[in-house]
Specification:
The complex is a heterodimer of chains A (240) and B (243).
Chain A (H helix, E strand, L loop, with lengths): L9 E2 L2 E2 L11 E5 L7 E7 L2 E12 L12 E8 L14 H14 L11 E11 L4 H15 L9 E8 L2 E4 L3 H6 L2 E8 L4 E9 L3 H31 L3
Parallel strand pairs in A: 6-7
Antiparallel strand pairs in A: 1-2, 3-4, 4-5, 5-7, 8-9, 8-10, 10-11
Helix pairs in contact in A: 1-2
Chain B lengths: L4 E2 L4 E4 L4 E2 L3 E4 L2 E4 L3 E5 L3 E6 L11 E9 L3 E5 L6 E4 L24 E9 L5 E4 L6 E3 L3 E4 L5 H5 L4 H10 L2 E4 L4 E5 L3 H13 L6 H10 L20 E3 L3
Parallel strand pairs in B: 3-7, 10-12
Antiparallel strand pairs in B: 1-6, 2-5, 4-5, 6-7, 8-9, 8-11, 9-10, 11-12, 11-13, 14-16, 14-17, 15-16
Classes of the chains: A alpha+beta (240), B alpha+beta (243).
Chain lengths: 240, 243
């Protein structure tokens, strides 16, 4: 969300990158990109690319963080300095700390870590190219990485972003749209259980607009989920 | 019995009064997978065997451990798992040991590989190890390699067929621990390591035994990058315990 753009972002129902309002960018997924981790994945939405890696379950220190009845999950979301137009100063800041927290929370309902007392699953999301919707790209990558690391889960998590520009409801905002939208909503969900695990909104929407957007987001999540399934199957099916 | 690959949250079947095995959970009478894994469904049990993941200690598993720390009355052992095991001296040494005078590193020192058994396991994963049986011993010399723990049964084969094949073809001593560590000693261990890593990589394919047999039958290794050369071990998580 931000100020009004200098030029029109939607002309005749076509967005700046030639997409229709309810059209996603090209999504690419790859599993097993980091060999030294237990599981990893890379997901791109157009020009936005995030790499997620999972280490563990492994023993957790310092000891006071340990939970004796369940394992815990820790998450770090980080944007590379070269991922944006103006160099981002490296290291955690207010924004990435918040995103780390909401991403961790969006996986809490799906993870089943009670078999791993005192242990931790450490997850890392590295955004190497940012062009809007980085948090949902990170969530999609992390979902694949957790599955390939053999972490028990109730369901995969799929995420997408939706928003509103010039009274048009749109799906999968890019960087330009993100900065100039009237409102944007990030949604993550467990598609088969129909449970929404992340719902963040910026800006102003009417109740009707919001409900429409949420339904569009769910539909898009299901599309992404199908691609996640196909990617994992492709990777592990082998020559059978 | 049909086998197929499932993803976390995939619906497997109605429960139909069957026992819930490993890697599954139940919701509204339906059984779902917890893991990315292979199904193993029989008439009285539903299981999913994960394709990847860390080793979780199980009671009376025979495992290979690496000594991590020498304590006053025992050793902490790295068992390739989120939890470390403790081997008390009474479970390891037959003779009387005066704890006031003896430094336990004379029996096992940091970095030594041992073959042992999980003798006790509490709910919050305190692992106690024991060497009080005939097979348990210190693994002298040789090399310890790390593979995915869920693939150990494939490496051992039906009633040990696969591992016996490698043993006879390469004339190596090989011991596989349930925790994914494999100890190999012998002249031709490079070839044995290569065979084991091939099995790990292609564990889900059919006709693997024939492939390994053919591979080990060849006199000369023509892959160029031979595993007999220690320089090529670094990226394969291989740790030499040669003394």
């Amino acid at each position: 969300m931000g100020k009004k753009a200098d030029k029109e972002l939607i002309i005749g129902g076509i967005r700046t990158d030639q997409r229709l309002p309810d059209q996603m960018r090209d999504v690419e997924m790859e599993v097993g990109v980091i060999t030294s981790s237990n599981g990893s994945a890379k997901v791109s939405f157009g020009k936005t690319t995030a790499i997620a890696s999972v280490h563990g379950p492994r023993s957790l220190f310092p000891k006071f963080l340990q939970e004796s009845t369940t394992g815990i999950m820790r998450c770090r979301y980080n944007m590379a300095p070269f991922s944006v137009d103006d160099r981002k100063s490296p290291g955690p800041d207010r924004r990435s700390t918040e995103l780390s927290k909401v991403i961790r929370q969006s996986f809490q309902p799906t993870l089943m870590l009670e078999d791993y007392p005192k242990a931790t699953v450490d997850t890392f999301i590295e955004v190497i190219e940012a062009d809007g919707s980085t948090r949902v790209t990170g969530i999609n990558a992390l979902s694949l990485a957790l599955a390939s690391a053999g972490i028990p889960m109730k369901d995969l998590v799929a995420a997408c972003s939706v928003g509103k520009i010039d009274d048009t409801l749109i799906v999968d905002l890019n960087g330009l749209e993100d900065n100039n939208s009237e409102s944007d909503v990030a949604v993550a969900m467990m598609p088969r259980k129909n449970i929404v695990t992340l719902l963040q909104m910026d800006g102003v929407l009417t109740k009707e607009e919001f409900m429409t957007l949420l339904n569009t987001a769910k539909k898009s999540c299901n599309k992404i989920f199908e691609q996640q399934q196909a990617t994992l199957m492709e990777k592990y099916k082998g020559d059978e | 019995m049909k086998r197929e690959i499932v993803l976390p949250g995939d619906e497997m079947d109605e429960r139909k009064g069957r026992k819930l095995g490993n890697g599954v959970y139940e919701e509204d009478g339906k059984v779902f997978s917890r893991f990315l894994g292979m199904t193993k469904v029989s008439e009285n049990e539903v299981n999913v065997i994960p394709l990847s993941g860390v080793y979780m200690p199980k009671l009376s598993d025979r495992i290979i451990g690496i000594i991590d720390e020498v304590e006053i009355s025992g050793w902490f052992v790295d068992i390739n798992s989120p939890y470390s095991g403790f081997l008390p001296i009474s479970e390891a040494v037959e003779e009387f040991v005066d704890l006031n005078r003896t430094d336990l590193s004379r029996y096992f020192d940091i970095g030594d590989a041992i073959l042992c058994r999980i003798s006790r396991l509490t709910k919050n994963k305190n692992v106690q190890l024991s060497m009080r049986d005939f097979e348990s011993r210190k693994l002298r010399g040789g090399t310890v390699i790390k593979v995915t723990p869920t693939k150990i049964p494939r490496i051992i084969g039906k009633e040990g067929s696969m591992i016996t094949l490698i043993k006879t073809k390469t004339k190596c001593e090989i011991t596989a621990g349930q925790n994914g560590l494999i100890w190999i000693r012998g002249e031709d261990k490079g070839k044995a390591i290569e065979a084991i890593l091939t099995i790990e990589r292609e564990s889900h394919t059919f006709g693997l035994t024939e492939k390994i047999e053919k591979m080990l039958g060849q006199e000369e290794d023509d892959t160029g990058k031979s595993m007999s050369d220690p320089d090529n071990w670094a990226d394969k998580k291989i740790q030499s315990t040669d003394e």
